[in-house]
Specification:
Formyl_transf_N_sf; globular; transferase; GART; three-stranded antiparallel beta sheet; EC 2.1.2.2; seven-stranded mixed beta sheet; binds 5-O-phosphono-beta-D-ribofuranosylamine; about 200 residues; purine biosynthesis; alpha/beta
């Protein structure tokens, strides 16, 4: 399965995918790592892993949709079959997202549908939740709103802070994302208008 990753930051989730691939646990070909930030650590990781990279600067485009169209044209040109958003900090134009329905997933650091958007650890603490987690979902025009495919859960303790939650959760994300990408690569998770796992709708 040809996989592209879009990331805006350090790329620890990308690193987890590359590690799983290198360990022979993930039957994927990484065809591109793209970013909206030329300084993204994810691009350095990709270079070190000999994965083609692309950085487009939003300032070079007159508006958001034209940036998104340009970036996704490169994703399509790379032969990508599955697009993984991993720390990609942009809301993508709905028309562009529509072309990737069923072929794009995102990992989000909350137990969706709780806390779509930003600052999820802080919101979890402020709400006094005793559980937190991460979700992998198919990307739709609704921000962090597509069908959730899988979640990882962690307990929230009294001494937890945003930083301690982020750290513990990231370790879970690094397990969860490769597991979902692997399920798709092995044909166990499919999209035929809705997310299906082993032929059963993902509830
Ligand atoms: C992670 O918390 C991930 O859930 C979110 O972006 C954060 C950074 O990810 N999507 P990474 O370390 O850049 O992969």
């Amino acid at each position: 399965l040809k996989v592209a990753v879009l990331a805006s930051g350090r790329g620890s989730n990308l690193a987890a995918l590359v590690a799983a691939r290198d360990a022979g646990a993930l039957p994927v070909e990484m065809v591109l790592v793209g970013s909206d930030k030329a300084s993204a650590g994810a691009l350095r990781l990709a270079e070190a892993a000999h994965i083609p990279t692309l950085a487009l600067n939003p300032k070079d485009y007159p508006d958001r949709p034209s940036f998104d169209r340009a970036l996704f044209a490169h994703v399509a040109a790379s032969g990508t079959e599955l697009l993984v958003l991993a720390g990609f900090m942009r809301v993508i134009d709905a028309a562009v997202v529509a072309q990737w329905e069923g072929r794009a997933i995102n990992i989000h650091p909350s137990l969706l549908p709780k806390y779509p958007g930003l600052h999820t650890h802080r919101r979890c603490l402020e709400a006094g939740d005793t559980e937190h987690g991460a979700s992998v979902h198919y990307v739709t025009a609704e921000l962090d709103g597509g069908p959730v495919v899988a979640q990882a859960r962690i307990p929230v303790g009294p001494g937890d802070t945003e930083a301690s939650l982020a750290e513990r959760l990231l370790a879970e994300e690094h397990r969860l994302l490769p597991a979902v990408v692997g399920a798709i690569a092995r044909g166990r998770l499919r999209w035929n208008g809705e997310a299906m796992f082993d032929g059963r709708p993902v509830t």
